[in-house]
Every structure is written in structure tokens, then in C-alpha cells.
Amino acid sequence: MHEAHAPAPGGAGPRPLDGVRVLDLTRLLPGAYATSLLVDLGADVLKVEDPRGGDGLRMTPPYTATGESGVFVTMCHGKRSIALDLTNAKGRTLLLELVARSHALLDSFRPGVLDRLGLGAEALAQANPDLVHVSLTAYGDSARAALPGHDLNAESYAGLLGLSRGPDGLPAMPAVPMADFATGLQAALAVVSGLRFAERVDGTGFRADVTMVDSALSFATIAQGAVVATGQAPASPDVLTGGLACYAVYRCADGLEIACGALEPQFFGRVADLVGDPTLALQQYDVTGQDALRGRLTTLFGERPRHEWLALLEDDQTCVTPVRTVADALADPDLRARGALVDVALLDATAVTVARAAAWAPAEDRARPASAPALGADTAEVLRALGHDVDDVRASGALG
Q: Which of 52, 167, 234, 300 would you label with 134, given CA atoms 20 to 30 Å apart?
């Protein structure tokens, strides 16, 4: 198995996971994010999808002019796809053949599903004793194991959802599904850790169960600190969620917004000096004066358009920045220059720009932009590499 670490041909230089082969049996955001990180690190990720529609991300709107899900394009470019029916005996046999030739497998089935399919721990270990197997589940092997769950449910169980509340007192709906992405991040870390373990200890493999609730809770360290210190969750809003006027968002005269992140005295003091009202700094941490300070800043920033405030504040020691859209970020020349953005091809070869999942990793030297695979696009190639006749396999029903 150790030959996995040989550099892949055609790259811009060795990447951490060049040559590592990953089977992706996951569905939806957590698994897609985990394997997109592995792709950026150099892994060859093969999505094993149900022929009856494939990964649900493929059906997630909005769609490009080519009919592809924009989210699927963003998260699955650079991966390959094979359509395989795991309820079919031949399909399961083919999967075990792929397991024998792979280094890692990720799945997002509920606990017990792989066992019922005959693809449990014993079958996988027989196929590949060194396999790194990471499962992504909502609740893990617990009293809630059989229950379905999405990001909102995991955030609610982990206590994250109640940390930010709207004017009506209800928890705000999360704009970013933090539990999903936390789970994907933890799963990718589990794969990398497992590969290192398997490299050191032959024949034992590595198993990890990454749950959404556990992963979400790991992101709530600040709130946990409040519980440790006081026995209670932090008040809402707290200093980082609107409790301090120096750390807030303000609307300018043209309707555009700025983010004032001047949490430390040196930064807010500089803001106060530049706007011509040093007395603002005297109220920075006055608990009883926050509403008054917020009112003064609201009035102040509402007097001039955003570009004038940014010209005055953005390039100084203020922590003042524009509130941009994601479209703005994807067009940022600085992000492009640093390699944080990459061009991806749609099915008609039109190039679109997306952010790399692991922008810090060495970039792949692409002669042409990678694309998100059509469902089963690589089925024939994969089967031939396994030594199978594609028509025979299709006749068996394994391809749906």
C-alpha cells in the first residue's frame, strides 16, 4: 500500500496525498466537503453513486446553463464517478474489488446499513486489511443512531443554533451549515490520520466514526468556555455577536455596509481618531453605554457612502472592511494571485471560478480546468481497469 505516496505525474510538484485512492460513498454536503479537501491534497477520489439519481447534491438548485447543480460543480470538480447498484450482488462484488485497490473509504450511511448490505467491517477488512474507513453520521452509534438528521438538527443538539438570535428572540437560521462543514473537515482529518496510522502499522486498518453533533460541538469552544467559567451558556448577543458596538456591521449612506471589527483598543482608538471623534473610544467597553455608542456610529457611518469610509479607514490600523458578496470574493484579484481560486469546466467546457477547498495546499498544474463528473462518467474506465467487460457487468444489473 505504501506506493501511494509516489508523486502523481503532471502535477505542479508533489502534493501530500498524490497517489492515494479514495472511494467516496457519501452523499450531500459533509462528505462532499471532506472529499473536496482530499482532492485538493492530491487524492484520486472516485464517487460511488447509486444509478438512480446519484448524489443528492446533483439535484440541488440553482442550476447552471448546462443543467448542472452549481453546488455540485463547486464541491465535486476533480472527482470521478462510477454508477454502481450496491443492492445488486455483482455491484457489491465490484465495490469490494475497488476497496482492495483503494487506501480509504468514506460513507455517510446510517449505522448498520453497510452491515445489512454485506459490506460491514469484516467484509471490508477481508478485501483490504489496511483500509482507512471513515463514516460520517448524524449521531453515531448512539441511542439516536437510526434517526435522520441534517445540519439544523446537529446544530440544535450541539447548542450552536441557540447562540445567535434574531430580534424576535428565535435562533437565527444559519447562513452557513457549520455542522456539515465541521463534519467534512473532521472526516478529512480522520482520513489523513488513518493513512498515517496504516503506514506505520500494517494489516490493522483504521476506523473512525465522525458525527455531525460531535463535530458541531467542537466548534463551540467559546461557548464551552463560558460554561466552564460560569456554569451557563453565554448571553445572546455576546461580545462577538453584537454585544459591542465596536464589533458590528453598519450601513453607509449609499446602502452598502461595512464591518467594523475593531475589538482591541488600539484599533477602535484609530477608528475614532480617523473619523474625527476621539471620544468614541472612551465608550468602547462601557457595558451600559453600548446602545448609545451604537447609535452614534450608526449615524456617523450613515452620513457618507461606503467608498469614502473605505478610502479613509480600510488601509489603516482599523479592522474596517467592506461587507462583500461571495461573487465579489470570487472576483478578487488578490485571492486569484494567491491561488485560492481555481477555474472549473462545466459540461460544455465553459470555465467558471470557484474557491479551492484547501487553498494552502500545492495547486495542481492543470492543462485544462477540471470538471465535476456526470453521473457514472468513469464507470467504463474503472471497470476495464478492474479487468471486467462493461457489457457483461451491465447485463448483471450492477449498473442499474
A: 52
Residue 321: C-alpha distances to residues 27, 258, 312 (Å) = 36, 6, 11
- How far apart CA 152 and CA 178 sit, in angstroms, is 9
Kindly state whether residue 213 falls inside one of the protein's structural domains.
yes
258: three-class secondary structure by DSSP? strand
User: Does 124 reside within a domain?
Assistant: yes
Which whole-number Å values give the CA distances from 272 to 19, 96, 248, 257, in the listed order?
Answer: 54, 65, 15, 18
Kindly report which listed range (208-212, 350-354, 366-370, 386-390) carries the lowest average pLDDT score.
Answer: 366-370
Domain that holds residue 92: 2-219+343-395
Please tell me what DSSP assigns to residue 144: T
Global pTM reads 0.91
- Residue 11's pLDDT band, with cuts at 50, 70 and 90, is very low
Buried b (16+ CB within 10 A) or exposed e, 43-52: bbbbbbbbbe
Domain-located, residue 328: no
The number of folded domains in the chain is 2
**Given this model, what pLDDT does residue 367 score?**
63
The SS3 of residue 70 is helix
Which residues does residue 207 pair with via DSSP β-bridges, in sequence order? 133
Distance CA 308, CA 313 (A): 9
CA distance 204 to 196: 12
Query: Are 79 and 132 in a shared domain?
Result: yes
Separation of alpha carbons 375 and 394, rounded Å: 15
* C-alpha to C-alpha distance for 76 and 33, rounded to whole angstroms: 8
CATH number, domain of 313, equals 3.30.1540.10
Same domain, 373 and 279: no
Query: Could you identify the residue written with the cell 438538527?
Result: 153
Alpha-carbon distance of 203 to 171, in angstroms, equals: 48
What angle in degrees, to the nearest 10, is found between the helix axes of 28-40 and 178-200? 50
Q: Where are the beta strands (DSSP E) in 325-366?
A: 341-345, 351-355
